[in-house]
Amino acid sequence: MRHPVTPSRVVASSSSRPSTLQEDPAVPDSPDATAGLDALSTLARSPQYRKVIRYLVDHPNSYKGQIQEGTGLPPSSLGRHLSELEDRRVIVGDVAGEDRRGYAVRYTVDVAYVDQLVTQLRTELLG
Fold this sequence. Notes:
The protein contains five helices and three strands, in the order ααβααββα. By secondary structure, it is mainly α. The protein has a single domain (33-126), classed as Winged helix-like DNA-binding domain superfamily/Winged helix DNA-binding domain (Arc Repressor Mutant, subunit A), CATH 1.10.10.
């Protein structure tokens, strides 16, 4: 399942507190700010996650076995990494979660979504 990619803007909080990333109501499909920051945090804190992302950018539509072979990560750890990255919408599988029983899943990075998150953060930090 691909997430729609639409242009988004970051809006500053109108309170006296420091501004935070917020979803822009004028852009209906912009990613939730908290979820977006969680996704970026996930990528920033783990070299293993970044290794998986880099592999999938270079080898889209890869199966778990191919990713394991290409990254050298242990299969049990890789399964957790793939699940976490998919939960954060950073990667997508070609088979929906409820339909996976008995099917091999091919994974791809949602590059547009990651780019959108980085753009939001850059706009918030640098204006």
